[in-house]
Design brief:
The chain is of the alpha/beta class. It folds into two domains: about 10-160, Rossmann fold (3-Layer(aba) Sandwich); about 170-485, no CATH class. Helix content is about 40%, strand content about 20%. It contains 17 helices and 18 strands. It has helices at about 20-35, 55-65, 80-95, 120-135, 150-170, 190-195, 205-215, 220-230, 240-260, 275-280, 285-295, 305-315, 330-340, 345, 375-380, 445-455, 470-480, and strands spanning about 10-15, 45, 70-75, 100-105, 145, 170-175, 200-205, 265-270, 300, 320-330, 355-360, 365-375, 390-400, 400-410, 415-425, 435-440, 460-465, 485. The strands form three sheets. It has a six-stranded antiparallel β-barrel. The chain has a five-stranded parallel beta sheet with strand order 2-1-3-4-5, with helices on both faces. The longest helix has 22 residues, at about 150-170. It is globular, with a radius of gyration of 25 Å.
């Protein structure tokens, strides 16, 4: 199952009739050549039709459809005709809300500013006004005027943004079980998801339990369990639980195939405790990690917006995501032992650190020496005596050091979308605790925690991208029309409600 969309970018050049059309064509050919040189290959199609007037729009749209383009770049090779070029964007965008980008050609030589001057720098201003008239949210790069190599790089940066938008418009989230009373923060209104184009299918835990029981004895179970053992290798500390977990994994994958309906992609938000353990007989964390490895997020605690956040990360990065609690502070003795007196002390103060934790849902590729264990907190309540049984099923270990991005897309209680993005790192410091856990460092995290996470009432779950992805995530949120996108501010720049006297 491929769970994130492919992106094919159609590029259409435009030309105002008082400028040479050959200038736009020559510059489009140069951009196409530069795209072919990029290290990461971009699937693109350069249309033969150059838009000079409205009569060219149907021809360009036909080319785009025949080529299978699901994202559009309107390239101003010269000033461009703002009416026809935005009409093209409008008609392309209105078909399944496909993403559109505008970029313009910079002048290339001081020796060619008569016939070779295109004035696209000026044309972008008129294009922006006409996009507003037509009510189109287009992706416009930070500085959207460039020579061909720069334009190619900008188009490459558009690709993950387009993937997020296309993915969301074709996504169905399956939810099993009511969102927990003990985590009211997970009970956000789902109306904004329909506004984004996401389909929601809420089901009872009984639906999942019935489907699970129907898979008892499935001939695929032994093969999946063997694959789990191969992945875990010496970390397979609870081999007796693997067939139960394999049965559950098959149940979820079959459910997705049988229930996606008109949607192309899926994610899950599943109830995972405490009745889950007593009825299903295991903890589902490891299965959640394995599906996330296949870019099929499975959030715990029926966190629908958590599942959506993970899916956005997967689409933006093409790297398996995870969902972690922003969980606990880092003790000062650990800070003194591992950071004081090192270069990291210049970068991070104690409040810049926290531990990201979950029971065991982080994909094995992001965990050092992952092990199959049991959920310690649940065992205290459900199996206080003897060896663990129904609380087995977590994938535990220290999360690998490296770049990360914290991200969440959430609804307020009043059904308004908001988001946050913060880039940081997982540090190469042993967390000395249980679960899938790591020590995270985000510049000015203490202030971000107080004046974004708390002030704006975000829940405890954070989506984690295992690379710096802030640029693409921010652009995607803006293209989707999310009105409030927060990020961590540097020292000396105050948040709106930050006390200036601290």
């Amino acid at each position: 199952m491929s769970n994130i969309p492919g992106v094919k970018i159609g590029i259409v050049a435009v030309s105002r009739d008082c400028f040479p059309m050959t200038l736009s064509r020559k510059r489009l050919d140069a951009v196409s050549a530069e795209l072919g040189k990029l290290e990461k290959k971009i699937d693109f199609f350069a249309a033969k039709t150059i838009i000079e007037n409205e009569r060219h729009v149907p021809d360009a749209l036909k080319e785009l459809e025949e080529a299978g383009a699901n994202a559009l770049v309107v390239y101003l090779g010269n000033f461009g005709p703002e009416g026809p070029e935005t009409l093209l964007a409008s008609r392309f965008h209105s078909n399944f809300q496909r993403p559109v980008m505008f970029v313009a050609a910079a002048e290339e030589s001081g020796e060619d500013l008569y016939d070779g001057r295109g004035d696209a720098y000026c044309g972008m201003l008129n294009a922006s006004y006409n996009l507003g008239l037509r009510g189109i949210r287009a992706y416009i790069p930070h500085y959207p005027v460039a020579v061909p190599s720069g334009a190619a790089s900008m188009i490459a940066e558009f690709e993950p943004v387009a993937r997020v938008v296309i993915g969301i418009k074709n996504l169905k989230i399956f939810a099993f079980g009511p969102r927990p009373y003990d985590f009211l923060a997970c009970n956000a209104p789902i109306k904004p998801l329909y506004d984004l184009g996401v389909e929601i299918q809420e089901n009872s835990e009984l639906d999942l339990y019935a489907s699970f029981n129907a898979h008892k004895g499935d001939k695929r179970i032994k093969g999946v369990a063997a694959n789990m053992a191969k992945e875990l290798r010496k970390g397979n500390k609870q081999p007796g639980i693997l067939e139960r977990l394999a049965q559950y994994e098959i149940t979820l994958l079959d459910w997705a195939e049988e229930n996606k309906g008109a949607s192309a992609h899926c994610a899950f938000a599943n109830k995972c405790w405490p009745a889950f353990q007593t009825q299903f007989g295991f903890v589902p964390c490891y299965v959640n990690s394995r599906l996330a490895s296949r870019l099929i997020p499975v959030s715990c605690e029926t966190d629908i917006y958590g599942a959506l956040s993970e899916y956005v990360i997967a689409a933006a990065t093409e790297v398996p995501p995870t969902l972690l609690d922003i969980n606990n502070t880092v003790p000062e003795d650990l800070y003194r032992k591992h950071i004081t007196g090192t270069g990291m002390a210049l970068l991070y103060k104690v409040p810049d650190l926290f531990m990201g934790f979950h029971c065991g849902n982080t994909p094995a590729c992001h965990v050092i020496e992952p092990e199959m264990r049991y959920q310690l907190i649940m065992k205290r309540a459900l199996e206080p005596e003897g060896e663990p049984d129904i609380t087995r099923g977590t994938l535990e270990g220290t999360i690998r050091s490296g770049d990360i991005t914290l991200f969440r897309l959430q609804s307020t209680a009043g059904a308004e979308l908001k988001s946050y993005i913060a880039e940081g790192k997982v540090l190469d410091i042993p967390p000395k605790s249980f679960g899938g856990i790591g020590i995270f460092a985000v510049p000015e995290m203490g202030r971000f925690y107080r004046y974004v996470l708390i002030e704006k009432q975000f829940p405890h779950h954070a989506g984690v991208a295992f690379k710096h992805a802030g640029k693409a995530l921010y652009s995607a949120m803006k293209l989707l029309g999310v009105p409030d996108v927060s990020h961590n501010l540097p020292a000396g720049t105050l948040y709106p409600n930050e006390n200036p006297f601290v």
